[in-house]
């Protein structure tokens, strides 16, 4: 698999590869122990959720950097934002639509019915303001990312139209503050009008809903602004930021563990403050990792996992894991059989992801470089 390393930052590949491996490890516990809930599976599954948050803040950091580059180059007309969306959509939509269709067909084959309101999935409305249906469940995070890429640039373009004499970078910051404040208000409003009864309830109604979660992406946008505007400080104190991020992450979760803080007994903390604190703690790692240019012995492997991460995320759960569980009662098998099934899960996930990337994702992504789309600029 040929990979163009010209513009890749190895440290960010480490973050992306770590994120998808955390997700796969988390899903592995669901494959082997679907009905067990102990400290070991809970910890692994927790870090799987952290993997998704890493994807969020990393995506925001990278896309925010692209928008700032557009601003620096004076590309702030609507056609420039349209070109930005076209490039994003050719990167994300082909894989998503293909895997969605495969999930619909597989669900029909196994259950002889079509999921209700399946059309919502094609426009990412399945979890816009309500809990995600129990179908293609990993797509909840993709809805959040897609709307983040649409709403932010739209607000930024509107601000540029209304305040033509203002600094475009200042309007970029204003866009971020507007969105973060609105989403925070929506979470406060939800907190004031609903009662969370369990961690599962909180995850379903807050963590996985677009209008309560989209700000996680914009904290990444903010980090991109800080990285470019205060580059010397960002780079000089990268080890201090790394230490602060680790301390914040460990401090928050140590308090949660020691004092048994849960969404049902600390609703204000979880509904309003926890997710932003998690995003900020992860972003404090970025000065260190964004400066990590050289790789060691495992550079090639880490980079390949990073490149396959989007395909892996789409394929591993609904298509591979749930299909295995549909035909095999994994929990009832012996340890040796479980290990073989686990190997099969990882082998199929990586193998199918490789095929998807090489023969579909990469060719579809290259279409955005056609002359027709470049003329949009």
From TrEMBL:
Its EC number is 2.3.-.-. The chain crosses the membrane at residues 12-33, 45-68, 89-110, 147-163, 170-190, 210-228, 240-262, 268-289, 310-328, 340-360. It comes from the Bacteria. Keywords: Acyltransferase, Membrane, Transferase, Transmembrane, Transmembrane helix. This is Acyltransferase. Residues 11-357 form the Acyltransferase domain. GO terms for molecular function: acyltransferase activity. Coiled coil: none annotated. It comes from Flavivirga jejuensis. It is an enzyme of class 2 (transferase). Pfam families: Acyl_transf_3.
